[in-house]
Amino acid sequence: MLQQLINAIVFGSVLTLFSLGLSLAWGTLDVLNLAHGAVFVFAGFITYELTKDSTMSFVPTLIVASLAAGAVTLALELVAFRRIRLHFPARRQAELSMLVVSVGAATVIGEVVSHQTSEAAFSPPASAFSIHRYSLGGSVGITNIQILIVVAAIIVAVALDQGIRRTRYGRAIRALAYDPTTTQLLGVNVGAVAAATMFLAGALAGLAGVMLAIYLGGEEVATGQDYLLTAFAILIVGGVGSIRGAIVSAYLIALAETAVVAYGPSQWRDGVAFLLILVMLLVRPQGLFARRRFQRA
Amino acid sequence: MARWALAPLALIAGLAIAACGSSSGSSESGGSKEASSGTIPVTFVADQTGLVSYVGEKVIAGMKLAVEEINSSGELGKRKIVLSIANSNSDTATATTQMAAAVKSNAVAVFGPALSAEALATAPLAQRAKVVDIGTLSEDTGFLPIGNYIYRLTCSQLRYDPLIVEHVAKLGLKSTKIVYASDNPTLSEETTEHMVPELEKAGVKVQGTVGVPSTTTEFSSLATKLESGNPESIGLMVVGAANPDLITALRHSGYKGVIWGEQSATAGALVPAGELANGFFYAVDYTESLPYESSKKFTELFKQKHPKEIPYGYDANGYDAMKAFAKAVSLEGSGPVTRESVLKGMQKEAASGGFEGASGKTIFVGPEHRDIAVPGVLVEWKDGAEHIVKLGTPGLEQQQ
Amino acid sequence: MSGTDENDPDTALQVDDLTVRYGQVTAVAGLSLRVPSGSVVAVLGANGAGKTSTMRALAGSIRASIDGRARLFGGSILGLSAHRIAARGMVLVPEGRQVIAPLTVEENLLLGGYRQRSRARLRELMAECHELFPILHERADSPAGLLSGGEQQMLAFGRALMSDPRLILMDEPSMGLAPVMVDRVMEAVEALHRRGASILMVEQNAASALQVATHAYVLDQGRIVCSGTATEVGSDPVVAQTFLGLREQAQAGQAAC
Amino acid sequence: MAIASISSWYAGNETLIQNILIYALLAFSVQVVLRAGVFSLAGIGFYAIGSYTAALLLKKGWPTVPSILAAVLLCILLGYLLALLLVRLRDLYLAMATVAFDLMVGVVATNWTGLTGGPLGVTGIPLVMGTLPIFLTAVGAMLLLGLLQRGVLGRSFEAIREDEPLALTLAIDTSRYRHFAFVISCVLGCLAGAYHALLFGTIEPTDAGFELIVLALSMVIIGGFRSWAGALLGAILLTWLPLELTSVGSWLNLVYGGLMIVLATWLPGGLLDALRALLRLPARLRLLLRSPSSLAATGEERG
C-alpha cells in the first residue's frame, strides 16, 4: 500500500513534468501541440546518443537534451505556428491548422528517431546514471532516480507557477493568452514571448524525456503518444492553462491509474484517462481549477 | 443546372477514362501467370513502416539475403528471383491494396505481412487469385484455413510453450505470475489458453495473470503488484519496450526471482535494460550461435552483408521463407515458373520433409502441411547476447 | 536607427497622407494631421469616419494596407510592429478599454510598464498612477474584469501612464460610459495632459472632447474636412451643425442609409 | 474495346478502389463536421462501432442489408445522444472529447471480450460485400455533401464556422445544424467501418485507433477541408501513394508528416485549392495580358 502510494507520487511527478509544457502552450497560444510527446521522446533519444559511446555525465546531458527539445519546439513555432497565427485571423482555423502541423511534426520527429534507432527501444546505458534503491523498511523502497524525478517535478512546478504569477514575463504570457492584440499595444513583443513560451514548453518536455529515458528500461517512439493522451486528461481535468490545476490533476490521475493497475482490472488502465476526459468535459468543461472565466473581447 | 450534381458524375467519367489510360500497361490478369525469360518475380507485402516496422525491416533484410544467395549460387539454374517490396505501413487497408496490386502483377508468389489483421485481410486476395502466400509472422488460428494457397512461416510462441514450461520446471521454480499485453491478440490468448494450463500441469503454481495495455511504459505500480505474494518467477508475455521496461521496474523495485519471457524479447529488445536483463530466458526460431550447418551458413552470410549487426529471428524468418519458396521452385524442375507450379512445388516440398534453413531443419506441419515449422531454441539473455539453453525439435507443439 | 531624431521639437506627431485600405474598402483616405508637443488634439467624427482605423494604423495594430508617412518626434513609425512603436514612447488606449480581464488591476498596471526595466522607476510611476486614479489603488487586487466601465477606463489610462509615454493615443475614451463618467474621463485626460504627455484623441462626443482639446480636426468619410484650434473648430457653424449640435441626427441619417 | 480494358483495369484495381471508397467515406465523416465548424473526430469511433455491429450481426446469421441498417440506426441513435452531450463544447475541447470517445471505444472493444472477441477482434466475417454498394454509398454521400455545401444549408454551415455569434444573430439555429452535421459524420464513419469489416472479413480493436484518427485528419487536411472533393482527393492520394512511393519505402510517413506541416502552414485549403488555382491560371494569365492591374484585385488573401 505504502509502496503503491510512492509509485503513484513518482508517476504523478512524471506526468507533471510532461504536461506542464503542454498546458503552457495550449493555455497561452491555443496550440494543442500533438508533437509534445514526440519532442519528449526526442530528448530521450538525444540522451541516448550522448551517453551511449561517450562518457558525458548526467547533468550536461540533461541540459543539452532539454535545450535540444526546446529548440525543436521553437523551430516549429518559428516555421509554422507564428505564420499561422499571423495569417489566419479566424481563431478556429488557426487552431485547426496548428493542430495539424503538430500532428505532422510528431510524425516527422518520430520517424527520424525510429530510423536512427533502427525502430527498436533505446535507453541510455546504466553507466549514464547509476540507480540505487533505498529501503524504507520492509519491502518498501524508492530509487534515487525516482527521488530525482519527484524533486525535479516539485521544483519545476513551483518555479513555473510562481514565474507565471509574479514575473514580468509571466504577466505577459497571461495577458497574451487573453488578448494578444492589446498585449502588443502595451509594448510586449508578443512574437518573442510566444517563441520563448514554446521553447520553454519544449524544454520541459525534454526534461521529462531525459528523466524518463533513465527511469524506464527503454523508450520507443510510441512512448510519447501514450503520455500525450494521459496529459490531455490532465489538462482537461485541471483546466486548460491552469498551472496549479495541471499539477493537482497530474497527481490525481496518477493516483487513479495506479489504483486501477494495483487493485483493479489493469487492462482498463488506458480507459481511466479517456473516461476522465469525457466526464470532465461533460460535467465541468472549464476544469476543476479554472478561475472565473472572462469572455474574451 | 446544379453544378454540384455534376461532380460525382465527373468522377465516374474520370474513373472510366483513367481505366482506359492505365489498362494498356498492365498485363493480363488470371490464375496462370508465367514469368518471362528466366526471372522469377515475387512480392513481399512488408511492414516497412508503422507499428511493427522493427519486424518488417528485419524480415526484408533476411529475405534479400536469401535472394542474393539463391541467385548467385545457381540453385535455380539460370533463373533469378526478383523480389519487390510493397510497404503495408502496418495497416490493413494499405496491406490489402498492396496485396491486390501484387496478385495482379506477374508475381508467382507473395509473402504476407506480419500483423494478424493484415494477414487475415490479405490472404483471401491471394487465395482468390490462386497465388501462394507465405505469411511471415501471422499466428492467428484463422489464417491457414483461408485456403490451400496459404502457407506460413511464423515463429509461433505456441510452438515454444513446452520449451519454456519445461525449463521453468527444471529450474525448480514452484510459482509464477504472468503479465501479458491485454490488447495483443496472440499474447493474451496464448497466456490464458496455453501457458497457464501447461505450467500448472508441469507443477508450477500460477499465482495470477495480469493484463496491461501494450501502451504502458511506467511499470512501478505493476511491479509492486507482481511482487506481492513473492512468486519465484515472473513471466512477461509483452511486446516491444515493455520487455526492458518491466524488467527494469521489477529489478529496481527489488525483485530477485527469475524473469522469463517470450520471443518478442529477441532482436535486441532487451538491450535497453542492460545487465538487469541477465538471466532472462525465452524461446526463438533462431539465434546467432545455432550449431546447424545451414544456420552457420546464414549467420556467415548475414555477417558479411551487415558486419555491424547481429542476426536475429526475424532476419532468419525472412531468409527461411525465401528458402522455402526457392526449394519449391527447384523441386518443380527447370521449366518456367508459374503460380500453379509454385503451389505444386510447395506441396512436394512439404511431402519431401522440408528444407534446411537459417533456423535448422524445417518441416511442414499441420493438418494440410502448410504450417512451416522450425526446431526453435531456448535462449538466455546475458551481457547483451543470446546464449543457447536448449535446442528444440521441429513440430514440437500439438498438431493443430 | 536610434529613432527619435528631434528635427522639430515642437511636433510630437506628424501624419502625412495616411491611407488605410481593407481589400477594396478604403477606410482612411489621405489623412494628414499634426500633434504639437504638449497639446491635446481631438479628432472628431461620426461612426465609420475612419477614426479607429487611423488610430490602429498609427499604433501598428492592424492588418490592412497602409500608405503615407507618420513621424513620431521625427522618427518614422508606419510599418513598425506595435511593440516597437510603444517602445518609442507612444501608447494607444484602445477603443473599449481592453483591460486584461483575468489579471488584477495591479498586474494590468505592471503590464503597462512592461518596458520599464528599472524597478525604482516602476514604483514611481505606480505611485503617480495611484495618485491620479485612487480607485486603482483601492482595487489593486481585484481582477480587472470586475471593474465598472468607468473604472476600466481609468485603468486603461493608468496602464498607459505606466509606460511613461510622450504621446498617448486615445480611441473613443468616453464610449459606452454614463454621462457623469464621461466628465470624469475628460478630467483624467486633462490630468494626463498636465502631467506632460501630448495627447491625440478621437471622439464622437465632440462637445466633451472640445472642452479639453487644444486643437481639433473633423473627419468625415476618411478625410479631414475642418481643422484648427479647439475654439475655432467649436465655433465653426458648419461643423457645429453637422458634427456637434446635430450629431444625433447625423447618426440617424447614417443609420437610415 | 474500351469496355474490355476498363473491366480488366477494374479487375486489377478493385481492392484499391474499395479502399479509396471506404477511406473517402471516413474522410467525408471528418470533412462534413469540420466544414460546419464542428471540430469532431467522433467519426472514427463510429467506424469501430459500425464495423463491430455489422460484423457481429452478420455472424449471428442476419442478412447483409439489415445488419448494415441496424449498424446505421445504432450509430444515428448513439451519434444523436453524443451530440446532445457534447454540443456545448467547442473547437479543441470538442476535438479532445471526441478523440477520448474514439479511444474509449477501442478500450471497450479490447476488454469487453464477451461481446467483441477482445483483442482478437472478430474474424471469419462472411465476405458478403461487393464494390457496387460501397461505390453507390460514396456517390450518395458526395451528392449529400454537395447539397450541404450549396444553398441555405451550405451558407448556414459556413456562417457557423466563420462566426457563430453572428450566425446566431442571423436566426440560424446553430445547435440544430451542429447536431445535424455531427450525426451525418457519425453515420458516414459507421458505414465506412461496416463496409470495411464486411469486405475484408476481419476487425480488430486496434483498427480504429489513434493512427486512424491521424490518417483521417491527414486525408481531409491534405486534400482540403472546405469541400467534399478535397476529402475525396485526400482519400485517393493517401490510399494510392503507398503504391507509388515504393522507392520512398520506410520514409513514407516522413513524407506524409512533412506534407501536413507544409500544407497546414502555407495552404490551408489543401491540395484542392492548389489544384483550383492551377486550373484558374490560364484565365488569370489572359487577364494579366489584358490589364495587369486587375490581377491585384483577385490576389487578395481570403480571411
Task: Characterise this structure.
The complex is a heterotetramer of chains A (297), B (400), C (257) and D (303). Chain A has helices at residues 2-29, 36-52, 58-87, 91-116, 144-166, 168-178, 180-185, 190-215, 221-238, 243-263, 269-283; strands at residues 133-135, 141-143. Chain A has eleven helices and two strands. The longest helix of chain A has 30 residues, at 58-87. Chain A has one domain (2-127, 134-220). In chain B, the strands form three sheets. An eight-stranded mixed β-sheet of chain B has the order 2-1-3-4-5-13-12-11, with helices on both faces. In chain B, a hairpin with a 5-residue loop joins β12 and β13 (371-373). Chain D is mainly α. Helices cover 78% and strands 1% of the residues of chain D. Chain D has 14 helices and two strands. In chain D, α2 runs parallel beside α4 (91-111). The longest helix of chain D is centred in the N-terminal third of the chain and has 34 residues, at 2-35. Classes of the chains: A mainly alpha (297), B alpha/beta (400), C alpha/beta (257), D mainly alpha (303). Chains in contact: A-B, A-C, A-D, B-D. Chains B and D meet through α1, β2, α3, α4 and α6 of B and α1, α4, α6, β2 and α11 of D.
Please write out the topology.
The complex is a heterotetramer of chains A (297), B (400), C (257) and D (303).
Chain A: H1 2-29, H2 36-52, H3 58-87, H4 91-116, E1 133-135, E2 141-143, H5 144-166, H6 168-178, H7 180-185, H8 190-215, H9 221-238, H10 243-263, H11 269-283
Antiparallel strand pairs in A: 1-2
Chain B: H1 3-23, E1 39-46, H2 53-73, E2 80-87, H3 92-104, E3 109-112, H4 116-128, E4 132-135, E5 150-153, H5 157-170, E6 175-181, H6 185-201, E7 205-212, H7 220-227, E8 233-237, H8 242-252, E9 258-261, E10 280-284, H9 293-305, H10 313-331, H11 339-351, E11 355-357, E12 360-365, E13 371-373, E14 377-382, E15 385-391
Parallel strand pairs in B: 1-2, 1-3, 3-4, 4-5, 5-13, 6-7, 6-8, 8-9
Antiparallel strand pairs in B: 10-14, 11-12, 12-13, 14-15
Helix pairs in contact in B: 2-10, 3-4, 5-6, 10-11
Chain C: E1 11-22, E2 25-36, E3 40-44, H1 51-59, E4 65-72, E5 75-76, H2 82-87, E6 90-93, H3 105-112, H4 119-132, H5 134-138, H6 149-162, E7 167-171, H7 179-194, E8 198-203, H8 206-212, E9 215-220, E10 223-229, H9 230-235, H10 237-245, H11 247-256
Parallel strand pairs in C: 3-8, 3-9, 6-7, 7-8
Antiparallel strand pairs in C: 1-2, 1-4, 4-5, 9-10
Helix pairs in contact in C: 3-6, 4-6, 6-7, 7-8
